[in-house]
Design goal:
This protein has 595 residues and is an alpha+beta fold. It folds into four domains: 2-101, no CATH class; 120-244 and 280-294 and 551-587, no CATH class; 301-349, no CATH class; 369-547, no CATH class. Helix content is 49%, strand content 9%. It has helices at residues 2-18, 23-26, 39-53, 58-70, 77-80, 82-86, 92-101, 134-144, 148-151, 161-173, 229-249, 266-274, 292-299, 329-332, 337-346, 369-390, 398-416, 443-460, 467-484, 492-515, 526-542, 551-563, 573-587; strands at 111-118, 124-131, 181-192, 200-208, 216-223, 282-289. The strands form two sheets. A four-stranded mixed beta sheet has the order 5-4-3-6. A hairpin with a 5-residue loop joins β1 (111-118) and β2 (124-131). The longest helix is centred in the last third of the chain and has 24 residues, at 492-515. Bound molecules: zinc ion.
Length: 595
């Protein structure tokens, strides 16, 4: 006993020494803890890696390891035994994954919850579903890296003052010791994952809200084709709410989320052992990130195209939304979180189970810069500038003029050493058929073309009051807003006035196009309203938008989407989620997780 405790202490000291303060931020890659010195272990490691990465199908890998064993290789007998040594081919993938999972550092591991999904034949049913529980992961990370506790707790001087204040509010509300509280954010979004990208994988994850560059930790994922939108999300939120309640109470649960006893699996046996013992730290929910589509489908916030009301932060509706001035609904008819929920209940709408997460408030829903500005307003401005530029550059026909615009974009790229470039320029990329002008590129590609659009407008600008002069001034505002993201502290008051000027100029161009009967030019888009909410109102409280934007989440999603392309095993929705979750648990270590 004594010797074991001594070894435990040594391990602890060693870990503390290893966990440098910069490690969390430097965590950019996926590491495995399957390091070994012997060739036998190395053989097992390489074979396991091939299965996890999907380099080889389960059948092919099994043939290889059996052949290698016959030739004298040692170490992979756990894999060769799979599917009764290959007799039951249908069990190969399952059995090999099980033996790989035994090497995972995560304890207890996968949790079997319940989820409502739709099968391929459109039948809807509630059945078992794999989850990775936030309270289990957080507790293990902090147990093994106790020095990180301070690092993931924000203070008012770190620029995360609002996160610190929200954490304090929750600590007060739930009577918790704030030094044991860690603010957490939640994120959800879909990412194309099949070989032909025909389906999305919806991923729900959590992260440390006081450290925007921290790792993202998956909770679960569901193929888009299997989602029964509100029902599926409600089931997820109920389970997430239970996990957060365990963290608030500070005790390991003694039963499953639905009140039933733990099962007989190895993971459930571990859970049973821990039940009733103290659970630290207290993970506090303070932030929800995602795009508008997810807020509508996942949390039942109003949609952008609703005529009665389209915003959860003000009374804007179909009639008033186009007024982007300070007299418009955003500033003159604001809505508190309680007023919003009251409005929903009065309208007879059912609230999302999301609000069952302890401490969850409407004010925790973050408006994301990447979706709102880069992919929203900047794409809108760029689409219009490109479209109007196309009509003024030299060329005998549209094809020649398009080639000229593209030549000038490339020239700008090379002269300014621009990264994240578009690889081609077609008419459909900024003049979608029958729709308003909008540029369709990736977020960073779009943002990187804003200075180019500004240069174009400056070249063409006439005297004040002239069309291109207004476009130039508007683009100057947009560029200033981008520049402010790099300022510390974030200049909230300047952001407000620059955004107001931007919206005033955009509204002017909108009216001008309407008067001239230009159907697709300078159209109203709801993202303009969200931009106003974000930069005129929200940043006053939340601070710099880059502290809660979705760029990091998107990086993590890309990694998960690769893990979703499975080889071998049944391609059911459950099977896909199971393989992603098992891959993640097997491939990541406790000390360094995905970025
Ligand atoms: Zn609003």
């Amino acid at each position: 006993m004594g010797r074991q405790a001594g070894r435990g202490r040594n391990r602890q000291t060693k870990r503390q020494a290893q966990a440098g303060s910069s490690r969390l931020k430097q965590a950019q890659v996926i590491h495995t803890q399957m390091a070994s010195s012997s060739s036998a272990q190395s053989f097992l490691k390489v074979s396991s890696r091939s299965l996890l990465d999907g380099d080889l199908s389960a059948r092919k890998l099994h043939q290889l390891v059996v052949a290698a064993e016959d030739a004298g290789a040692r170490g992979a007998d756990r894999l060769t035994k799979a599917g009764k040594r290959g007799k039951h081919q249908q069990n190969l993938h399952r059995d090999m994954m099980r033996s790989v999972m035994k090497q995972s550092a995560w304890r207890p591991g996968v949790y079997q919850g319940q989820l409502t999904t739709m099968a391929k034949d459109k039948t809807i049913a509630k059945g078992r579903w794999p989850f990775i529980l936030p309270h289990e992961v957080l507790s293990q990370i902090m147990e093994e890296n106790p020095v990180w506790l301070k690092e993931v707790q924000p203070n008012s001087s770190s620029g995360y003052g609002f996160v610190a204040a929200s954490t304090q509010d929750i600590a007060t509300e739930f009577k918790l010791d704030v030094s044991q509280c860690v603010p957490l954010g939640l994120h959800a979004d879909g990412v194309p994952y099949t070989a032909k990208m025909r389906d999305n994988l919806y991923c729900v994850s959590w992260n440390f809200a006081g450290c925007s560059s921290s790792s993202r930790f998956l909770i679960t994922c569901v193929p888009g084709s299997a989602m029964v939108k509100e029902k599926t999300f409600d089931d997820i939120w109920k389970l997430v709410a239970w996990s957060f309640r365990c963290m608030m109470q500070g005790t390991w649960p003694s039963r499953k989320d639905d009140g039933s006893p733990f099962g007989t699996s190895r993971a459930d046996a571990l859970r049973h052992q821990k039940s009733g013992s103290p659970l630290r730290p207290h993970g506090c929910f303070v932030q929800l990130r995602g795009d508008w589509e997810f807020f509508r489908d996942g949390v039942r916030l109003p949609a952008w195209n609703k005529s009665d009301y389209m915003c959860w932060r003000c009374q804007a509706n179909g009639q008033t939304k186009r007024d982007l001035s300070p007299e418009g609904p955003c500033l003159s008819q604001p809505l508190s979180g309680f007023q919003f929920l009251e409005r929903e209940l009065r309208s007879g709408r059912q609230l999302s189970a999301f609000w069952g997460i302890p401490g969850a408030r409407v004010g925790h829903v973050r408006i994301d810069w990447m979706h709102t500005i880069d992919l929203g307003v900047s794409a809108l401005v760029l689409g219009n500038v490109m479209s109007e530029y196309l009509d003024v550059v030299p060329g005998n026909n549209q094809a020649e003029r398009l080639a000229e615009v593209w030549r000038r974009v490339r020239l700008y790229y090379s002269e300014n050493h621009v990264e994240n470039r578009i690889q081609k320029l077609t008419l459909g990329m900024f003049r979608p058929r029958g729709e308003g002008y909008i540029f369709s590129g990736k977020a960073k590609e779009t943002a990187n073309l804003v200075p180019w659009a500004s240069k174009v407008a400056t070249e063409l600008a006439g005297p004040p009051g002239e069309h291109w002069h207004s476009v130039m001034c508007m683009l100057e505002c947009l560029q200033t807003l981008y520049g402010q993201l790099q300022e510390d502290p974030y200049p909230t008051d300047q952001a407000k006035s620059v955004c107001e000027r931007f919206l005033l100029l955009y509204s002017g161009l909108m009216s001008e196009a309407e008067r001239a009967g230009k159907q697709h030019a300078w159209m109203y888009r709801p993202k303009l309203h969200l931009m106003q909410e974000l930069l005129v109102k929200c940043v006053q409280e939340w601070g710099n938008p880059k502290q809660y934007w979705c760029y990091r989440d998107e990086d993590a999603l890309r990694w998960l989407s690769k893990a979703g392309v499975r080889r071998g095993g049944a391609a059911t929705a459950y099977g896909i989620a199971d393989v992603v979750i098992n891959n993640l648990l097997a491939a990541t270590s406790v000390s360094v997780v995905i970025n």
